[in-house]
TrEMBL record:
Pfam families: HD (PF01966)
Keyword Hydrolase: yes
Gene: yqeK
Organism: Aneurinibacillus danicus
Keywords carried by this UniProt record: Hydrolase, Iron, Metal-binding, Nucleotide-binding
Catalytic activity from the UniProt record: P(1),P(4)-bis(5'-adenosyl) tetraphosphate + H2O = 2 ADP + 2 H(+)
Signal peptide: none
Stated name of the protein: bis(5'-nucleosyl)-tetraphosphatase (symmetrical)
Enzyme category, top tier: hydrolase
């Protein structure tokens, strides 16, 4: 499928506002891919499709999670906000014929992240945080970090998500913690030096 056909397919699935967000993610993902050396075409396709199932009804998503063997079932115990990413990867494979596993993984992990993310996954996940339409406290700091260090910027983004969820007394999906930990270099303090 060509870029225009994919955009058309996405446009039929999401709200106008979310479509504009998607275009922002596409533009940002291409730019980050260029900057950090990821595959631009794959970044573009993953960005176009990343929120394909964002507005699907909960029961429809639950059904796909329950009936797709490789989707982790523990997702059902966490915020429904996480579901559209895993479900989206399956649906774009099934309905749009997207077979590239790297693209599918970038869609699948764009919300939660995961341990040892690929360059493409990082680019799409970070683009989702900082696209021009995003407005939340700290987004400008994140945009600046994105110009300097991909891992540090993404760790900041995921850290913000974790803090946001903690402040709302929500559960944290373990992959998000693992994703952040794998992006932050361990700083071991030498106890003796501190004495
Ligand atoms: Fe999303
Ligand atoms: Fe998004």
């Amino acid at each position: 499928m060509k870029r225009e056909q994919l955009l058309e397919a996405v446009r039929g699935q999401i709200t106008k506002h979310r479509y504009e967000h998607t275009l922002g993610v596409v533009e940002t993902a291409i730019r980050l891919a260029e900057k950090y050396g990821a595959d631009k075409e794959k970044a573009e396709t993953a960005a176009i499709l990343h929120d394909y199932c964002k507005f699907w009804p909960e029961d429809k998503m639950r059904n796909i999670i329950e009936n797709t063997p490789h989707i982790p079932k523990d997702l059902l115990e966490y915020d429904t906000e996480l579901w559209h990413a895993h479900v989206g990867a399956e649906v774009v494979r099934r309905d749009l014929g997207i077979e590239d596993e790297e693209i599918l993984d970038a869609i699948r992990y764009h919300t939660s992240g995961r341990e040892n993310m690929t360059l493409l996954e990082k680019v799409v996940c970070l683009a989702d945080y900082i696209e021009p339409g995003r407005q939340f406290p700290g987004v400008d700091e994140l945009r600046t970090a994105a110009e300097e260090d991909l891992d540090r910027a993404l760790a900041k983004g995921l850290g913000g998500t974790i803090t946001f969820l903690v402040n709302r007394e929500k559960r944290i999906y373990p992959l998000t913690v693992l994703a952040r930990n794998s992006l932050v270099k361990p700083k071991m303090k030498n106890v003796k030096e501190e004495e």
